[in-house]
Amino acid sequence: MRRFSCLALLLAAAGAQAQVADTVSYLQRMDTDGDGRVSVEEYVQWMVYAFERMDRNGDGVLGADELPGGKGTPITREQQRQTLIQRFHKQDANGDGYLSARELAAPPR
To answer: What is the value of pTM for the model shown?
Structure first.
């Protein structure tokens, strides 16, 4: 169930912040320093947006009532942050510490 909650947060982040037409546009939106690649910090900042929007009471925990479907195991902001960091490193196929447009477009690993 926890994996479902994290996946739902990631999907919500992708749709909630902006509609982008292609991977390059997505990278440009995430790449806050404009260096053409996405660092783990930029990735987490972008993706945690969904958590912040869903945390209606602002307590730093998504309780069952705040999760999609109104049920599931509560998750803290820090737990979500750690999940995002792990996913970033799985997606970083070449291990350089950044995500390229190609890595962002690749299916989750």
So the answer is: 0.74
- The span from the CA of 52 to the CA of 72, in Å, is 17
Cα-Cα-Cα-Cα torsion 2, 67, 86, 47, nearest 10 degrees, comes to 170
Furthest CA-CA distance within the chain: 40
Q: What are the start-end ranges of the E strands in 1-109?
A: 38-39, 61-62, 75-76, 98-99
What is the pLDDT tens value at each position of the chain, 109 positions in all?
A: 444 445 455 555 545 444 445 778 878 889 999 999 999 999 999 989 889 999 999 999 999 999 989 888 999 999 999 999 999 999 999 999 999 988 988 888 8
Residues 6+ apart with CB under 8 A from 48: 13, 77, 80, 81, 84
